[in-house]
Design goal:
about 70 residues, mainly alpha, 3 helices, 2 strands
Length: about 70
C-alpha cells in the first residue's frame, strides 16, 4: 500500500494588506490571496457596493474587523 505525504512550502492565509491599503486593506488582501490585480478587486467591490449596498457594506466592515493585518 502506498502512502503519500504532502508538504506545502507556501501557506496562504487571507489577511488585510497593510501596505497597499486605500481604506482598510480588505480589497488588497483579497487580491493578494487570489493573485488578482488590486484595481480589479477594488472595481468589483465598488460595483457590488452599488448593486448590493447593505450586504456589501456589512461584509466589508466584518472583514475589516475580523481579518488580521499583513504588513511590513
Amino acid at each position: 500500500m502506498m502512502s503519500y505525504q504532502r508538504e506545502y512550502s507556501v501557506k496562504k492565509t487571507l489577511r488585510k494588506d497593510g501596505i497597499h491599503k486605500k481604506l482598510s486593506g480588505v480589497c488588497g488582501g483579497i487580491a493578494a490571496y487570489y493573485q488578482l490585480p488590486r484595481v480589479a478587486v477594488r472595481i468589483a467591490a465598488i460595483g457590488a457596493l452599488i448593486i448590493f449596498p447593505v450586504a456589501t457594506g456589512v461584509a466589508y466592515i466584518v472583514a475589516a474587523v475580523l481579518l488580521p493585518t499583513k504588513g511590513n
